[in-house]
Write a structure and sequence with these properties.
Protein name: Peptidyl-tRNA hydrolase
GO molecular function: peptidyl-tRNA hydrolase activity; tRNA binding
Catalytic activity: an N-acyl-L-alpha-aminoacyl-tRNA + H2O = an N-acyl-L-amino acid + a tRNA + H(+)
Organism: Chromohalobacter marismortui
Main location: cytoplasm
CATH architecture: 3-Layer(aba) Sandwich
Distance between the termini: 30 Å
CATH topology: Rossmann fold
Order of helices and strands: EHEEEHEEHEHHH
Strand order of the largest sheet: 2-3-4-1-5-7-6
Number of helices: 6
CATH superfamily: Peptidyl-tRNA hydrolase
Number of strands: 7
Largest sheet: 7 strands, mixed
């Protein structure tokens, strides 16, 4: 399994979307940039906010696409082409309806599960779905008809505290991920519940 060289946080650009559930993936990368004391900066060639950080002894590219969620692939593909990255070297952080707030899960490959950011990313990578995912639980509204309004809505205070606690735990597991110790990272993260 290839080492992770880039962590990409999916979301929608702009102040209207910044605090919405759909931006939970972006929150991971923003937290990692803060933790690394390296600000994300607008980078036109990657269509997003970018930084290169040193984290747990590894050089890692961070990207939050400034494209809308359903066009995330353009930014991911631009980063991959520039740095000659393979899909297996990517960790894509995204919001996940199927797990509760306060929990997060790693996953290797697989389908998009109806997530437009993952769908577009896989498509932009030539339908190669072998990238790693970091699924940040935001919970489900209970009805498929409510999903769009739900992910574009803001979590309540307690919910946001739980999501942030899960993101903090994600950061604690990243040294294992970057060292290639997926079993250790998964064991720790998957047993965490805020």
């Amino acid at each position: 399994m290839s080492d992770v060289k880039a962590i990409i946080g999916l979301g929608n650009p702009g102040a209207d979307y910044d605090a919405t559930r759909h931006n939970a993936g972006a929150w991971v990368v923003e937290a990692l940039a803060r933790d690394s004391l390296t600000p994300l900066r607008a980078e036109r060639k990657f269509l997003g906010q970018y930084a290169k950080v040193r984290y747990a002894g590894h050089d890692v590219h961070l990207l939050v696409p400034s494209t809308y969620m359903n066009r995330s692939g353009k930014a991911v593909a631009a980063l991959c082409q520039f740095f000659k990255l393979t899909p297996e070297e990517l960790l894509i952080a995204h919001d996940e309806l199927d797990i509760a707030p306060g929990t997060a899960r790693y996953k290797h490959g697989g389908g998009h599960g109806g997530h437009n950011g993952l769908r577009d990313t896989a498509s932009a990578l030539g339908n190669d779905k072998s990238f790693h995912r970091l699924r940040i639980g935001v919970g489900h509204p209970g009805s498929a008809k409510q999903v769009v309004n739900y992910v574009l809505g803001r979590p309540g205070k307690a919910e946001r505290i739980a999501i942030d606690a899960a993101i903090d735990e994600c950061l604690r597991t990243l040294p294992d991920v970057l060292d290639g110790n997926w079993a250790g990272a998964m064991n720790r993260l998957h047993s965490f519940n805020a």
